[in-house]
Amino acid sequence: PAGLSASTFPAKLWRLVNSPRVRSVRWDSRGQGLLIDRSLLERELLSPGDAHGAGTEGAGPAPDSFQATHFGSFVRQLNLYGFRKVPGWVGSTAPGDAGGWLHFRNPNFRRDRPDLLLRIKRLTRANRQRLAAGLEV
Q: Where is the HSF-type DNA-binding domain positioned along the sequence (predicted)?
């Protein structure tokens, strides 16, 4: 949407989840959350051995799309932008299996509402204080 910088984490995530070339991140069945395959995301987008996309031969976005090389850093970005893991959700593999699908939600990240992306703000210390005081970020 107009007014949203294409370089922000939410904008990049939106492009990836809607890209037919990305297999590691997809919408849940209701279009209100993300399903993330950890092992595939690590290979597809976070590969530290290929930080500038060399050798991908146009197979997908550059691995440095999120300037992260570890899954934990990616999840930290999700958390900083208000995404929360859906508790008790079990993916396609056994519970505790690091290779399974993980489910994350943010009320302002929905398949049918790209306009809501403008409401997603990074939770900085100042923004957390504003939220605690009942103010809008």
A: 5-123
How many CB atoms sit inside 10 A of residue 133's CB?
A: 7
* Cβ within 8 Å of residue 83, ≥6 positions away: 34, 104, 105, 106, 109
- Token pair 């990305």: residue: 22
Structural tokens at position 89 = 């959700």
List the chain domain ranges.
Answer: 9-46+66-133
pLDDT per residue as tens, the chain (137 positions): 677 788 889 999 999 999 999 999 999 999 999 999 999 998 888 866 544 443 344 445 444 466 677 889 899 999 999 999 998 655 544 444 444 799 999 999 999 999 999 999 888 877 777 767 777 66
The CATH number of 9-46+66-133, from 2.160.20.10, 1.10.10.10, 1.10.260.40, 3.40.50.970, is 1.10.10.10
Spatial CA neighbour of 91 closest among 41, 46, 28, 32: 28
